[in-house]
Design goal:
The chain is mostly helical. The chain is 65% helix and 2% strand. Strands 1-2 form a two-stranded antiparallel sheet. It has a two-stranded antiparallel ribbon with strand order 3-4. Helix 3 packs antiparallel against helix 11 and helix 6 packs across helix 12. The longest helix is centred in the first third of the chain and has 40 residues. The termini are far apart. It comes from Streptomyces gardneri.
Length: 347
């Protein structure tokens, strides 16, 4: 029987991979493998480039909602307020805008009520910020000790912060009443005459500051407490082994360790004092800050100009003055803190 073989493979062909088979008719057929066996299809370059682009852009996509809202409700109002401050705009006719340039700003410099509100803002800020931070530091130091009911006390100091500004101010307005207020009643019990807390300049500013101190002391105390818990216990143990008393440990271990936290609370409290609005407004319910504007802050003065006298352009100028004032105060605080840290690092 003759065998008929397939023609030999051409040059470069693969070697036979299967044995010789016999056909039903007795013919012998040799099977050969293809020249290049099929391979798995590679991932397309376009798809891989899209994936790389998504990996790079995905972090920005995740934070885009925040920056979108910030641009819509933060950056745009700020820029638009600066634009409006350069025009004469009245609340009744907001579409009629008359160019004034820096006229609104120069008018503020010649307004005695502006300087009065600026002075009141500074005074109330000092009367509220200094006692607030000192009391908060003391409370945090006490809450840092191991005592019974510590968790309850830490929660209780935060309750004033959770209270509504309107509710807290209205309650304090009753307490500081001239004729039937509880505080004047207590003062009368110890032989002190009644104080006109709403009409006297110093007394009204103390009353406003008291509301601010009551609301924000617990909040700052918890911030200080968190800072104290980050101070290593080894420092206190070393100070105790050296014979340092509790007071010395507080001044030489706790305060240096809390310096960044203290700078933060000072800056935040300063910003809050500059923007003070609700407490002086609700103490007597007057946007003028008392009969003689004795406790009118910059926030009340801006509200009075914009929604009391309908001068939106001047109100926008006051808003930008407040913004620049906050930037200057925060910058000065940061500069002082940086210089002090450099001096301590160089010792």
């Amino acid at each position: 029987m003759y065998g008929v073989h397939a023609p030999p493979p051409c040059a470069g062909a693969a070697h036979p991979t299967s044995p010789t088979d016999s056909s039903p008719k007795g013919r012998t057929v040799t099977l050969t493998a293809p020249v290049n066996p099929p391979k798995a299809l590679p991932v397309s370059r376009r798809e891989s480039s899209v994936r790389r682009a998504w990996r790079k852009a995905s972090p920005y996509a995740y934070i885009a909602p925040f920056f979108t809202l910030f641009a819509a409700f933060g950056v745009f109002p700020l820029i638009y307020t600066a634009y409006v401050s350069l025009y004469r705009v009245e609340l009744q006719t907001p579409g009629d805008m008359e160019w004034r340039g820096l006229g609104n700003y120069t008018a503020l410099l010649g307004d005695e009520f502006f300087w009065n509100s600026l002075r009141n803002t500074f005074t109330i800020g000092v009367l509220s910020t200094v006692p607030q931070l000192v009391i908060a530091l003391g409370l945090a130091h006490l809450l840092n000790y191991r005592m019974r009911g510590r968790t309850f006390l830490r929660t209780a100091v935060l309750l004033p912060y959770a209270t509504s500004v309107a509710a807290a101010t209205l309650v304090f307005a009753q307490l500081f009443g001239r004729d039937f207020g509880l505080i004047n009643y207590v003062l009368g019990a110890v032989g002190i005459g009644p104080v006109d807390w709403q009409n006297d300049t110093v007394a009204s500013q103390i009353a406003v500051s008291t509301v601010v101190v009551w609301r924000w002391t617990g909040y700052n105390a918890l911030i200080y407490l968190a800072g104290m818990q980050s101070i290593p216990d080894e420092l206190y143990e070393a100070a105790a082994m050296d014979g340092a008393s509790r007071w010395r440990q507080f001044f030489h271990v706790t305060l240096p360790g809390l310096r960044p936290t203290i700078v933060f609370t000072v800056i935040v409290s300063t910003i809050g004092a500059t923007q003070l609005f609700g407490e002086p407004l609700l103490l007597e319910g007057s946007i003028s800050g008392g009969i003689s504007h004795q406790y009118q802050t910059l926030g009340l003065y801006m509200y009075e100009q914009g929604w009391g006298f309908f001068h939106l352009g001047r109100a926008a100028a006051i808003a930008w003055v407040m913004f620049l004032l906050i930037v200057v105060v925060v910058g000065v605080n940061a500069l002082i803190a940086r210089r002090r840290s450099r001096k301590e690092a160089g010792r």
